[in-house]
Design a protein that fits this description.
By secondary structure, the protein is mainly alpha-helical.
Length: 90
């Protein structure tokens, strides 16, 4: 799920703002940076949560279904396509 990745990104941003030992701070922006990061993460979360709603609508968007079918077929056929190069590890 996308929630896990968003949580990981927020954790890494918070970790980059803290000083640990002699390591320098990677993101230095005080409270303004925190506000902007949280705002952007909320916007991204909102965009990600709208995708299932568009799929389950009364008249769903055909493009979303088409892309979903393409991705599913790619994930299904990728191991077979890589079998010649990777062998049993495909």
């Amino acid at each position: 799920k996308h929630w896990i990745m968003l949580e990981w990104i927020m954790f890494k941003c918070k970790e980059a703002q803290q000083r640990k030992g002699k390591r320098r701070v990677l993101l230095d922006g005080k409270e303004g940076l925190d506000h902007v990061l949280i705002e952007k993460m909320c916007t991204l979360r909102n965009c990600c949560s709208q995708i299932p709603h568009k799929i389950t609508g009364r008249m769903p968007l055909p493009y979303v279904h088409f892309v979903k079918i393409l991705v599913d077929s790619f994930l299904l056929l990728a191991p077979f396509a890589q079998y010649n190069d990777m062998g049993m590890f495909a």
